[in-house]
Design goal:
Layout lengths: L1 H24 L4 H7 L3 E9 L14 H10 L24 E11 L5 E4 L1 H4 L4 E5 L5 E10 L4 E6 L8 E2 L10 E6 L7 E14 L2 E9 L11 E4 L3 E9 L10 E5 H14 L5 E2 L2 E5 L2 H6 L8 E6 L4 H5 L6 E5 L2 E2 L5 H7 L6 E8 L2 E8 L1 E2 L26 E5 L2 H7 L5 E6 L12 E7 L2 E4 L3 H9 L6 E8 L2 E8 L6
Parallel strand pairs: 7-12
Antiparallel strand pairs: 1-2, 1-4, 2-3, 3-6, 4-5, 5-6, 8-9, 8-11, 9-10, 10-13, 11-12, 12-13, 14-21, 15-16, 16-17, 17-18, 17-19, 19-20, 22-23, 23-24, 24-25, 24-26, 26-27
Length: 486
Amino acid sequence: MQYLRSFVALLGFAFAALAQAQARDLPDFTRLVEDHGSAVVNISTTQAVRRANVPQLPNIEDEEVLEFFRRFVPRQPGQPGPGQAPGPGQAPGPGRPESRSLGSGFIISADGYILTNAHVIEGADEITVRFTDKRDFKAKVIGSDKRTDVALIKIEAANLPVVKFGDPARLKVGEWVVAIGSPFGFENTVTAGIVSAKGRSLPAENFVPFIQTDVAINPGNSGGPLFNMRGEVVGVNSQIYSRTGGFMGLSFAIPIDVALDIQKQLREKGRVSRGRIGVVIQEVSKDLATSFGLDRPRGALVNSVEKGSPADKAGIEATDIITKFDGKQVEASGDLPRIVGSTRPGSKVDLEVWRKGGARSLTVVVGELQEERVAARDTPRAQKPVEVAANRLGIVVAELTPKQKEELKLGHGLVVTDVRPESRAEVRRGDVILMVVHKGQYTELKSVEQLNKMLAALDKSAVITLQVRRGEATAFVTVNGLTDKG
């Protein structure tokens, strides 16, 4: 019996020692959070409600037209708008502010520059930055890049705590990482996990080699930092894979070197320049590699070459497999857009292609990828070769050509050719503005000069209504206030 008691006691000591050893091996995040948590901020945005409530339109099949009606055709009183829950008998009115977004960010310079996600601040009329000590600041947008989901904002402050930057290339799959952010609005929440994979390409996101982690990321974490165990920011938390809207163990972060390159361009130029060569590519499968005589599946197979593009001028041909670009290996087709995109336009670059059973070297002068819109909102727009002034609606319009009138079966109207960031009119390129209604006066639009004179005579706070044709649909769009420009 005495021997049994001694054995049980020794066993207990052994388990206790093992538990202590395991506890010593577990990471301790307390110092990291104490040192760097104050540089992480909560970001909230508001946006004025500019759309009216609309009825259900079950007979309309065209998605763009349906969205047009959803935004502009009034509902019956008491019907809630999309995503809104008004009180009994009350429908949300235009101009009423609504909370639109909640996210995170982190301070990268002591004078108030903050990195976050583009989708966090997209369309915001007002951005509020809150610190852990409950101080609030209004922020302005320096620039935003939708392709990488990176945005740079600025607050007026000094001597702020800043983060340190790490090297994502040194990250190893399996190492611990920490996220700090505001999931569901719970400020300065800390979650931890490991790096699950590196260099992930996501559908329609081929400009970013994402860091995949199993760190718990939820709505509100977007734009917050991903730290390594040395307290260095290695990524910007951007996306989650979820079937429910919540965390499911798959989170994706933008490598910090990519984000810093984007913010540098946004700060210096207000926009991002990306390279392009003008090819359509696809993945090289095992069967394709065999067919083309390639040693293994690698590279980007060129399906077609845009006529007159940099690739065409360089002699790249359809059926070529691009295996190396600017000294960098192209292992998968998704690597090529990322490598080319990060190359400065105008650069003369060597590349290697696999053609008809052998490797061949070519040289290409990289062109520039045209962005869908200018990155900056609160800074002056980048200059275009020919800049047409916007009117006081913040848009550029042109008179319909005889051919357009015939095709659209219209006798009058002005077509929208550009929509500027300052625009308050919910229109898009290609829309045709048929009429302006102001204080009971209905004016059919027949010339740009006619519209500009009319707008020039109105007060800045004027409320006008536009009759807009989009596709086969027509609706009335109200504009609350005009710009000082035009």
